[in-house]
Amino acid sequence: MSSLSTIVETQISAEALERYELQVLPDCPFSLPMGDDLSFLLAQKSTTSASKDISFDPSNGRLSGLSRQGQEARTRLAEILGRFSSGVRHWLQNSIPEYAAGLTSDRVSLRSREEATRVSRLRARNDLLHIDHFPTRPSFGRRILRVYVNIDPTDAHVWSVSERFPELLARLAARNRISARSIEQWTSPTQSMVRQFTGKKPNRTAYDALMVRLHDFLKENQGFQMKAVRKVHTFQPGATWALFADGLAHAQLRGRFALEHSFFVDLDCLVNPDASPLALLQANSSSQSRFAA
């Protein structure tokens, strides 16, 4: 099955990412925290309730999900994650220059908990096959690119990947009516009267709502979780892997101590925008209101 293919190279390519391939680099191509900084990261703990992981927003330097810490420790952590963010972004801009003009940094995550023993509500579980979409941060049709690094000094991370967006969407549409919409209708944000008067950010678009629904549908679909064809990947310490996480079903089965950086990529920067989830959704919904399984 082509959707399960993986390439291992010294560089990643836009073409492979947009074919819904998971790309793996055995050695990290950018600078990582070392020495005392790495030991400091490995000692960090996330909260047990509000957040699954420690999160850093490069746009404003804010940390969230961190267990109670003094200001000095928080400042140091923000500086380390800020340098990581800058390194990943610089590498991406040079590795995939096509994306440079349309690359928007999202959040950095420090994942300190063991995935195999993490306890989460069903829709928050990472070990179930799913696509990624952020309920509180609409993409407005942009792609979600995620870059991971295993910073555990000794142990591997284990993932599995499965179907691509066209097959996943067909599964959703077999059970749920999907209305036909134009690109503009899919990506225009809704605005409630309350938000108009309060000045709050606009509601998610129809596209964002559907992608969140697909995320939840996959995690709740026991038949898909049990029967989907999948390929297992093992990422050794220091390995880096990247994917468009909004289009390839994936699950994180085992591992702790990872750094992850999410980015939004504008559609007009893609090498093949017609293969994006938004374009495929519009093309299919314009011809039929229901998809065959």
Question: What can you tell me about this protein's structure?
Answer:
By secondary structure, the protein is of the alpha+beta class. It has a domain at 11-28 and 105-285. Helices cover 31% and strands 22% of the residues. It has an 8-stranded mixed beta sheet. Strand 3 (54-57) and strand 4 form a beta hairpin. The protein is globular. It starts with 5 loop residues before the first strand and ends in an 8-residue tail after the last helix.
Main sheet overview? 8 strands, mixed
- The percent range for helix content is 25-40%
Quaternary status: single chain
Supply the number of helical segments.
Answer: 9
The largest sheet has its strands arranged as 1-2-9-6-11-5-3-4
Poorly predicted runs are 1-8, 193-198, 289-293
Count every beta strand, where a strand is a DSSP E run of 2 or more residues: 11
What form results from the Cα inertia axes? globular
**What is the ordering of alpha helices and beta strands?**
EHEHEEHEEEHHHHHEEEEH
Binned strand content: 15-25%
**What average pLDDT do the residues reach?**
89
**What is the radius of gyration computed over CA atoms, rounded to a whole number of angstroms?**
19 Å
Taking the alpha carbons of the first and last residues, their distance comes to 17 Å
